[in-house]
Design the sequence.
């Protein structure tokens, strides 16, 4: 396990506990994602290393409009402990906790061409049945798949692409 994830875990758990108690998991998720995106910008990353930057400056810079005081407190704590670079890991861990609590599986469907809404609905229904949870789909296009789709749902990967089938056939023939 990487050191960044180890350091980020307590912050993600604390943020999750506060957000869950306030019933604001989606809002916190969006606010954390915003802060991580802003902090990852190269010009902002250089600015965050400036010793003249104050706690209030960081909170104003990284907080989306309408963020709660508790979120400001988290950013201040990250600033005080020099943990702002951990924001991407905190977001990832927070979202894992959120989706587990909400019983949601995130799946990425990569296909050779754009899939019709009816096809996506069929895939979503099949995944919902398989996992017994709600499914949140993300789509991507990869023309190298030739046809079919590749579904990545965390620990489960379903390769129904023509490229994958050809690779499996080639492997079987070479053995």
Sequence:
């Amino acid at each position: 396990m990487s050191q960044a994830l180890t350091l980020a875990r307590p912050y993600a758990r604390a943020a999750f506990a506060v957000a869950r108690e306030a019933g604001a998991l989606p809002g916190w998720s969006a606010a954390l994602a915003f802060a991580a995106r802003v902090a990852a910008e190269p010009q902002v990353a250089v600015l965050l290393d400036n010793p003249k930057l104050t706690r209030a400056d960081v909170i104003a810079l990284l907080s989306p409009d309408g963020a709660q005081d508790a979120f400001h407190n988290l950013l201040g704590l990250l600033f005080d402990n020099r943990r702002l670079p951990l924001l991407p890991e905190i977001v990832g861990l927070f979202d894992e906790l959120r989706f587990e609590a909400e019983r949601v599986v995130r799946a990425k469907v990569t296909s050779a061409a754009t899939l019709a809404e009816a096809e996506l609905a069929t895939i979503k229904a099949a995944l919902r049945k398989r996992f017994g949870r709600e499914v949140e789909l993300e789509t991507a296009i990869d023309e190298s798949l030739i046809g079919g789709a590749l579904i990545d749902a965390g620990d489960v990967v379903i390769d129904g692409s023509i490229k994958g089938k050809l690779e499996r056939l080639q492997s079987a023939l070479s053995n």
